[in-house]
Model the fold of this input.
Amino acid sequence: MSHQITVHHLNSSRSERLFWVLEELGLPYNVKVHFRTETNSSPKSLLDISPTGKSPCLELDGEILTESSFIVHKLLNLPDVKDKSNTVNLIETEQDNFWSHYAEASMLNLMQSTAIIKVMSTTWIQGKTDDENGNNLNEGNKKAVQDFTSYLTGKVIGSQLQQSINFAEKFLTKENSTGWFSGTENPGEGDFLMFFAINAFVAGKAKGVFQIGEGFKGWHKRVMERPAAQKAVKREQDELAKAQSA
Ligand SMILES: N[C@@H](CCC(=O)N[C@@H](CS)C(=O)NCC(=O)O)C(=O)O
Done:
């Protein structure tokens, strides 16, 4: 059975995961790119489609789906992807379940808070928000906002994120590790969900910000050696470029 699939992708966002899982499953898909507003939020075009107002949002055979882990779970359980069971772990293991929760609840929550604080601090200092105080900050207050932002994102949230990274690293480097969060010989739901964060730490915007060990580096290398992951990264880049020039 062929499916009608459209990924609603917000630039620089966790919808990146869907490209990888769709390529692994060999499911053809369309992409609609939505560009973030000045305050890093979803634009109207995405708010009009996504009931949660967030990305990722996936249209699957006319149904609108949100929440990354729900979407990935649903895709892995489509009856016609069973022939991928030699290369992808389709049956969710306990580890998959744990790491797909962990990705959102113990990593992405901290990454997102950091991003929100940084963007809001900058836009507020520049007087670009509706808040009238933004325009009125004197140089001393601007510096205070900047210092508090660094304290929050570095010492407070940054150190919590480092702890979350260390915990996941430990799992990947333990003695009987298979090298995948699924705990099997193939990547599964937990791996697809962890992709956005680890890709950001190893190769993306957060590269060099945190201490990353051999666990994450090896995992990322294994992922990027997979033709499906390479296709996913290229497709995302091509779609962004196409949308930018449209
Ligand atoms: N737990 C949700 C989080 C969704 C989420 O917060 N997505 C961000 C992008 S990474 C977003 O849509 N941000 C725009 C906004 O909040 O306006 C999921 O995994 O789908």
